[in-house]
Write a structure and sequence with these properties.
The chain is about 85% helix and about 0% strand. By secondary structure, it is mainly α. The chain has one domain (about 1-55). The chain is elongated and about 55 Å long. About 0% of the residues are buried.
């Protein structure tokens, strides 16, 4: 559900940013930053899972 909602919101937002700035550079840089944040969050989640497994809280 979240992916569908974000897709509906993102496309007009990309168009608005293009109209405002005249370029898609801002959008591309923001997507790159969001992907980097996503990678960091996934790594943190897997490290947290390993700690829970070692403590016996994750089966």
């Amino acid at each position: 559900m979240g992916l569908a909602i974000s897709s509906v919101v993102a496309l007009p937002a990309y168009g608005y940013i293009f109209d405002f700035t005249g370029s898609y550079d801002v959008v591309l840089y923001s997507i790159i930053i969001m992907l980097i944040v996503n990678i960091i969050c996934v790594i943190a989640a897997f490290r947290g899972k390993k700690k829970l497994e070692q403590a016996g809280f994750w089966k």
